[in-house]
Amino acid sequence: DVKVTQSSRYLVKRTGEKVFLECVQDMDHENMFWYRQDPGLGLRLIYFSYDVKMKEKGDIPEGYSVSREKKERFSLILESASTNQTSMYLCATLGQGYYEQYFGPGTRLTVT
Amino acid sequence: GENVEQHPSTLSVQEGDSAVIKCTYSDSASNYFPWYKQELGKRPQLIIDIRSNVGEKKDQRIAVTLNKTAKHFSLHITETQPEDSAVYFCAASNSGGSNYKLTFGKGTLLTVNP
Asked: What average pLDDT does this structure show over B68-77?
C-alpha cells in the first residue's frame, strides 16, 4: 500500500509569513508533485520533482518554491504567504506502474 | 501546454440511472487519460484509466471511452448508487519523458439521489 503523508491537515498563517508544507512518501519513487485545489478550478500543478534536487515548474508556480533534498521528502515553500494562497494543498507520488498518482490527505492552509 | 475541459460541472441523477461526464483535451501527443474520484473530505483516488491505443475500457459499472481523432474521452457510470456521489476529475498526460505529470479538468460534482 502506497503511503503519502503531509505534515499538517490544517494550518493557519499570517500574511507575509514563510510557510513550509512537507510531504513524505514511502514508495521510494523519483516523481513527486504539489497541487493546489480550489472549488471550481480543479487540481492545478504547482511544482513537480523527478529526482532528488531536480524540480520543474508546473502551471502555477508564482509565489511558491520547492525543495527535494531526500528522495522520500518533497517540501512546498510559500516565501511570503498571501491571502490568495488560502487553499487545499495536495502532494502526490507515483506507484510502481508509473502512471497512477497517489495523493496525500491534503493540507488546508488559511492565510489571514 | 495541455488544456483539459470537463463538462458538466454538476450532475444530479436518480439512483439507478446512468451518468456521463465528458472531457476534451488539446494536446494531440497526450496518450494517457485517467479518472479520479474524490469523496467529500478525502483524497482523490484513481478509479479507471485508458491509454491511447484502446478505445474503450470497462470495470464493472464504470467505463471510459476515448476518441483520439476528436480529442475527447468520457466516463460512464451505470446503475448509479448513492456511494457514487463525489467529485470526479478527468486528466490527460503525455507519459513520454520522465515527468508523468497530469493536467486535470475542473471536476464534476455528481450527486446520486436515493
From this structure: 96
Question: What distance lies between CA A93 and its chain's CA centroid?
Answer: 10
Q: In angstroms, what CA-CA distances link A98 with A27, A31, A101? A: 11, 9, 8
How distant, in Å, are the alpha carbons of A24, A98, B7, B25 from that of A5? Answer: 5, 19, 31, 31
Q: Is A38 on the interface with B (CB under 8 A)?
A: no
Q: What residues pair up with B34 in beta bridges, in sequence order?
A: B49
pLDDT digits (tens, 9 = 90+) for B86-110: 999 999 998 765 578 899 999 999 9
**Which residues, 6 or more positions from B109, have their beta carbon under 8 angstroms from its beta carbon?**
B9, B10, B11, B86, B87
Dihedral, CA of residue B88, residue B93, residue B29 and residue B71, to nearest 10: 0
pLDDT at A111: 98
Residue range A24-40: average pLDDT?
A: 93
CA distance A32 to B70: 31
Cβ atoms of residues A75 and A21 within 8 Å: yes
Whose CA is closest to A26, among A104, A107, A106, A108?
A104
The verdict on B114 touching A (C-beta cutoff 8 Å) is no
Q: Which chain B residues have a beta carbon less than 8 Å from that of A44?
A: 104
Query: A9-13, A22-26, A92-96, B27-31: lowest mean pLDDT where?
Result: A92-96
End-to-end CA distance of chain B: 41
Cα B49 to Cα B93: distance, rounded to the nearest angstrom: 11
User: Does the beta carbon of B54 lie under 8 angstroms from any beta carbon of chain A?
Assistant: no
